[in-house]
Amino acid sequence: MNSNKIYNHLKNYSEGDGVYLENPCSIDKINELQTKLNDKVNGIFVNEYSNFLETTNGAQIENAVFYSDKEFLDKVENSNRFEIGYAGNMDAYLYNVTTKKYEITNFFNTAEVFESFDSLTDLMNRVLEVQGVTKSA
C-alpha cells in the first residue's frame, strides 16, 4: 500500500472499530512543518507525514497515538530521530533520519528498537495489526 492508500484505508474505519481520526491539518500548518523539517530530514518522511496530516491531524488506533502537527513540532529536536507517536507506556514510534526507517522502540529506552519499517504505511499497518483493529461490517 502506498502512503495515500493507507490514509484512505484509515478513513474506512470508525470509532466503533477503535480508530479515531481528527480533522485534516491546514495547508498552512503542513507548509510550516515542511519548512522546519526539510533541512533536517529526507523528503520521503516529510512527504509521508504531510500526507498523513492531510488526512487526519493526529490519530488514535486503540491504545496507539500518532501526533498532530503541533504535538510533533513540539517534540522535534536537533537529533537524528523524531518521535511521531506512542502506544501507552510500552512503545514509542520514531523516524530515524540516519537509517531512513520508521521504528517501534521501547517507550522508556528508545535505543532499544523492537521493529523497523521502510514506510509510514508499513508502520501503520503493523500498529493496526498489533492493536487488533478490524473493520466492522
Number of strands: 7
CATH homologous superfamily designation: SMI1/KNR4-like
Q: Based on helices, strands and strand pairing, what is the structural class? A: alpha+beta
Using the 3D structure, state the CATH architecture: 3-Layer(aba) Sandwich
Distance between the termini: 22 Å
> Looking at CATH, which topology would you report?
SMI1/KNR4-like
Fraction of residues in helix: 25-40%
Number of helices: 5
What oligomeric arrangement do these chains adopt? single chain
Question: Average pLDDT value?
Answer: 86
Shape: globular
The helix-strand sequence is HEHHEEHEEEEH
Instruction: Indicate the radius of gyration in whole angstroms.
Output: 14 Å
How much of the residues is beta strand, in percent? 15-25%
| Strand neighbour order, sheet with most strands | 1-2-3-4-5-6-7
Compute the number of structural domains. Answer: 1
The main β sheet shows up as:
7 strands, antiparallel
List unreliable stretches of 5+ residues. Answer: none
Q: Can you tell me the CATH class?
A: Alpha Beta
Write the layout of secondary structure elements.
Layout: H1 3-11, E1 19-21, H2 27-38, H3 43-55, E2 59-61, E3 64-66, H4 69-75, E4 81-87, E5 91-96, E6 101-106, E7 113-117, H5 120-130
Antiparallel strand pairs: 1-2, 2-3, 3-4, 4-5, 5-6, 6-7
Helix pairs in contact: 1-3, 1-5, 2-3
Task: Describe it.
- By secondary structure, this protein is an alpha+beta fold.
- It has a single domain (3-130), classed as 3-Layer(aba) Sandwich (SMI1/KNR4-like).
- Helix content is 38%, strand content 24%.
- The chain is built from 5 helices and 7 strands; from the N terminus they run αβααββαββββα.
- It has helices at 3-11, 27-38, 43-55, 69-75, 120-130; strands at 19-21, 59-61, 64-66, 81-87, 91-96, 101-106, 113-117.
- A hairpin with a 3-residue loop joins strand 4 (81-87) and strand 5 (91-96).
- Helix 1 (3-11) packs parallel to helix 3, helix 1 packs parallel to helix 5 (120-130) and helix 2 packs antiparallel against helix 3.
- It is globular and about 40 Å long.
